[in-house]
Design goal:
With about 475 residues, the chain is mainly alpha-helical. The chain has 15 helices and six strands. The chain has a domain of about 180 residues. GO terms for molecular function: electron transfer activity; heme binding; metal ion binding; oxidoreductase activity, acting on diphenols and related substances as donors, oxygen as acceptor. One of its GO terms (cellular component) is plasma membrane.
Length: about 475
C-alpha cells in the first residue's frame, strides 16, 4: 500500500519527526539543570527553605524530562545506520568521533552524578550534593557543545580531506573541525534559546499558580526569577541571532535568500519582506508586505548595499523557500513576543505590581510553551535551509539515504508515530500534572522505590525507617 510513496521523502519525514520530538527535551533540560543549580546555590547561601522547596519541586520534573530525552536520543541515532547508511559511511570518519566524545564526556558526566543529584541529598554532604548538581548542569552544556559542533560542521564543513573512495576524512587538525565557522554562533544562540525555553516554562507555571493564589510565595519567586531571565537574556538572544544571521549570509547565502524571500537580486538595497506567500513556481512572493531597503540595512548595515537573490542560484541548489520563509518568521516573531513580556515585567516591577497584574500572568501562561515552538521553528530554518545538502556543499541528501524500499520506511515511520505519541504523550501528561500542583513548604523531591535496588551479591540492607521518602534535613526541622 506504500509503493506509491517516495522512500527518500519518508526517510526525511521520519528523521524530522524523531529529531523534533527529541529536541524538545534537551532544550528544556539544558536550562532546567542550570536553574536547579542556581536554586540549590541560593539555598546554601541564604538558608531559605523556599529555594530548597523549589529545587525539590523542579528536580522531579527534570528527572522525567531527562529520561525522555535520553530514550528519544538513542532511538534517533539508530536511523543513521538504517535510513542514512550512505551518510554514515561517507561522513562517519568525522561525525563518529565527535558523537563519541559527547558520550564519553557529557553523557558519562550526567549519568555519574544524576543519581546523587536526584536521591542523595540526605546521603552525602550539602557541598558534595551541590557539586553533583553542578556536574549535571555542566554535562548538559557539554552535550550541547558536541552535538552542535557536529551539526555546525555539517552546515559549514572545514578541516577535512576527501579520500579516493569518496569518504570525508578528518584533516590535520581536529580543532578546525570542532570549531568550524558557524559553531560559536550556533552554540551561543542555541544555549540561550534553551535558557529562555526554561524561563518561560517556569514563568508560565508560576503565573498559573499566581492566578489561583497571589500570596503563594513559591509561585512569586518562580515568576520573578523567570521574568528577570526573560528581560535580560532575550535582548542578548536577539543580538546573538543577528550575528548568527550575518555568519550564515557569509557561508550559506542560499539559506538567507530563502529566509528573506529574495527570489530576485537587489543591486541598490533589498527590502525586508515582513509577510507574504512565497511562490516558488513563479519565483516571487505574492501579497508581500515589505519595508524598502531594510533587509540590506540589517544584513549589511548599509541601506544601499546590494544583496544577491535566488536568481543567482541554480534551481537544484535552492532550498524549499516556503518552509524556511515561514519558520524563520515564527521564530523571530516569538522572540520579539518574549522581549515584550520581559519589558512588561520590568514595567510591572517599577509599578510594584508584578504579582498583582492578572493580565501579565495570563500572557505569561500563554507564552509558557513559546520557547519550544521558537526552538523548533529555528531548527526547521537551519535544517531545511541547508537543503539540498546533508553536508553542505559535499553530500546531497538524496545521495545520503539507504537503498530502502518505501514500504520498509513507511512501516517504521508509522511505528515511531504510534509509540512516540503513546509513550511520550503519557510522560508529558504526567509532567503537566506535576506542574498543576503548586509548590509548597516541605516539598519531598524525587522519591526512591520502597524496596531499593535489586542486589545479586553483597550484603542486603535491612529495611529503612522511612522507605521511599526523603528524611527532612536539619534546616527543615529547625525552620518547620
Amino acid at each position: 500500500m506504500f509503493e506509491q510513496f517516495d522512500a527518500l521523502l519518508l526517510a526525511r519525514i521520519q528523521f524530522a519527526f524523531t529529531v523534533s520530538f527529541h529536541f524538545f527535551f534537551p532544550a528544556f533540560t539544558i536550562g532546567l539543570a542550570s536553574f536547579l543549580m542556581v536554586l540549590e546555590g541560593l539555598w546554601l547561601k541564604t538558608g531559605r527553605q523556599l529555594y530548597l522547596d523549589l529545587f525539590k519541586y523542579w528536580v522531579k520534573i527534570f528527572a522525567i524530562v531527562f529520561a525522555m530525552g535520553v530514550v528519544s536520543g538513542i532511538v534517533m541515532s539508530y536511523q543513521f545506520g538504517t535510513n542514512w547508511a550512505v551518510f554514515s559511511d561517507v561522513a562517519g570518519p568525522v561525525i563518529g568521533p565527535l558523537m563519541a566524545y559527547e558520550v564519553l564526556t557529557a553523557f558519562f558526566l550526567e549519568a555519574g552524578f544524576l543519581g546523587v543529584m536526584l536521591f542523595g541529598m540526605n546521603k552525602v554532604g550539602k557541598k558534595l550534593h551541590f557539586f553533583a548538581t553542578c556536574m549535571v548542569a555542566l554535562g548538559t552544556f557539554v552535550s550541547a557543545f558536541w552535538i552542535l559542533s557536529v551539526n555546525s560542521w555539517m552546515q559549514t564543513p572545514t578541516g577535512f580531506e576527501m579520500a579516493a573512495n569518496g569518504q570525508i576524512l578528518p584533516g590535520e587538525s581536529w580543532w578546525d573541525i570542532v570549531f568550524n565557522p558557524s559553531f560559536p554562533y550556533r552554540l551561543v544562540h542555541t544555549v540561550m534559546a534553551a535558557y529562555l525555553t526554561t524561563a518561560f516554562v517556569v514563568g508560565g507555571v508560576g503565573a498559573w499558580h499566581l492566578l489561583k493564589d497571589r500570596t503563594n510565595l513559591h509561585a512569586r519567586k518562580m515568576f520573578s526569577m523567570a521574568m528577570w531571565m526573560a528581560a535580560i537574556v532575550t535582548p542578548l538572544q536577539i543580538f546573538a541571532g543577528d550575528l548568527h544571521g550575518l555568519n550564515t549570509l557569509e557561508h550559506q547565502p542560499q539559506k538567507v535568500m530563502a529566509m528573506e524571500g529574495h527570489f530576485d537580486s537587489h543591486p541598490d538595497g533589498a527590502p525586508l519582506i515582513l509577510f507574504g506567500i512565497p511562490n516558488s513556481a513563479e519565483k516571487r512572493v505574492d501579497y508581500a508586505i515589505e519595508i524598502p531597503k531594510a533587509s540590506s540595512l540589517i544584513l549589511k548595515h548599509d541601506a544601499d548595499a546590494p544583496l544577491a537573490g535566488l536568481d543567482t542560484v541554480p534551481d537544484d541548489e535552492e532550498p524549499p523557500v516556503g518552509m524556511v520563509f515561514w519558520s524563520f518568521r515564527i521564530m523571530v516573531g516569538l522572540g520579539f513576543a518574549m522581549l515584550g513580556i520581559g519589558l512588561w515585567s520590568l514595567y510591572a516591577r517599577w509599578r510594584k505590581n508584578l504579582y498583582d497584574w492578572p493580565l501579565l500572568h495570563k500572557a505569561a501562561v500563554v507564552m509558557g510553551p513559546s520557547g519550544f515552538i521558537a526552538v523548533l521553528a529555528g531548527w526547521i530554518t537551519t535544517e531545511v535551509g541547508r537543503q539540498p545538502y546533508v553536508v553542505y556543499g559535499l553530500l546531497r541528501t538524496a545521495d545520503a539515504a539507504s537503498p530502502l524500499d518505501a514500504p520498509a520506511v513507511a512501516v517504521s515511520l508509522l511505528a515511531f508515530i504510534v509509540v512516540y505519541f503513546a509513550v511520550f504523550g503519557i510522560g508529558i501528561w504526567y509532567i503537566l500534572r506535576l506542574m498543576s500542583h503548586a509548590p509548597h513548604v516541605g516539598e519531598l523531591g524525587a522519591k526512591r522505590g520502597d524496596t531499593g535496588p535489586i542486589r545479586t551479591a553483597g550484603i542486603t540492607p535491612g529495611p529503612t525507617q522511612n522507605p521511599g521518602h526523603d528524611e527532612p534535613l536539619p534546616t527543615e526541622k529547625e525552620e518547620g
